[in-house]
Amino acid sequence: MILQISAIIIAIAFVALVIYLIQTLKSLNATLVVTQQTVNQLTEKVTQIGAEVTDVIHSTNLVTQDVRRKMNSLDFLFNSVSDVGQIVNVFTSTAKKLITLKGGAKREIS
Questions:
Q1: Given a cut of 60, is residue 106 above it in pLDDT?
Q2: How far does CA 43 lie from the centroid of its chain?
Q3: What does the buried/exposed string (b/e) look like for 17-32 if buried means 16 or more CB atoms within 10 Å of the residue's CB?
Q4: Separation between Cα atoms, residue 8 and residue 85, nearest integer Å
Q5: Per residue in 16-72, pLDDT tens?
Q6: Least C-beta-crowded within 10 Å: which of 24, 63, 91, 110?
Q7: What's the pTM value of the predicted model, to 2 decimals?
Q8: Per-position DSSP letters for 22-60, written without gaps between them
């Protein structure tokens, strides 16, 4: 009789353990399903972001090339402005020398 009662208690404990494990596995399965959905959504978002980043990099490269081209086309203008500045400097220096010479010559005459 004790053997039968022990076997029944062991069987009940085993059934309780199996029921607990089934509930735990169901809960784990639900968590894994949600995790899989999240990973799938993240994969889609990362793919979209990657495509957008590629577009932004391409646009940035185009803008950079355009700016370089425009800066190169302005080089001659800056060179011309530099030349004009040098000419004005020479002209001013010559004018100062002439004024100084004329002023000095007038003082000697007076």
A1: no
A2: 20
A3: eeeeeeeeeeeeeeee
A4: 109
A5: 999 999 999 999 999 999 999 999 999 999 999 999 999 999 999 999 999 999 998
A6: 110
A7: 0.49
A8: HHHHHHHHHHHHHHHHHHHHHHHHHHHHHHHHHHHHHHH
